[in-house]
Amino acid sequence: MKKNNIEIVLASESQRRIELLKSLGVEFKIVKHSHSENHPEVKDPVDFVILCSYEKAKSVLKNENQLLISADTIVYVDRKIVGKPLDKRDGYRIMKMLSGKKHSVYTGITLTYKDKVLSDYTKTEVFFRKIFDKELKWYLENASFLDKAGGYAVQEEASIFIERIDGDFFNVVGFPIFLFSKMFKKITKMDIFEFIKK
Q: Could you read off the pLDDT of 7-59 as tens digits, one per residue?
């Protein structure tokens, strides 16, 4: 878990984030945050994801040798912030909003290390083709969508609805690796490759 006297901690139970961080070869431990992700007063998507990632980090106890990673991803469409669907009916409502439109995916990341806190975000544009009711019914019956921002995972069944993506693909998955690697180097003064498992 420790390398160069730094223990890396991920404040998330998101399987997508866990898988992407593991794919880098980084060793880390997982802790659960206690942030509710509920800020109806915040309408700006950038402010929202940065606030949520920061609050997640703040809710987790850490020691000074831990580098803590927290993140929050949302979908933004029709000037509305869209999180995870509450149920199948809500999933239907969200997917109808996305059908035939461009929407934006925002992820905010916060890193804390010793007495330093660093937050940033990235944005990706996703273009959905029109989704027909027969397809949507099948999707809601068969796909795993309740734990996903916007009600879909880009790498799973919803991929058949996506015409194109402008920006970081991994951001849409839920963890923008490029942004993370830049932030990691900035806060630790070391390259992420120094932490990749040999």
A: 899 998 888 899 999 988 888 999 887 666 667 777 899 999 999 999 998 88
Q: Locate tokens 């800020």: which residue?
A: 39
Query: Which CATH class name applies to 2-195?
Result: alpha beta
Annotated active-site residue 47? The verdict is no
Q: Give the whole-angstrom CA distance, residue 24 versus residue 27.
A: 9
Q: Which of 72, 90, 147, 166 is catalytic?
A: 72
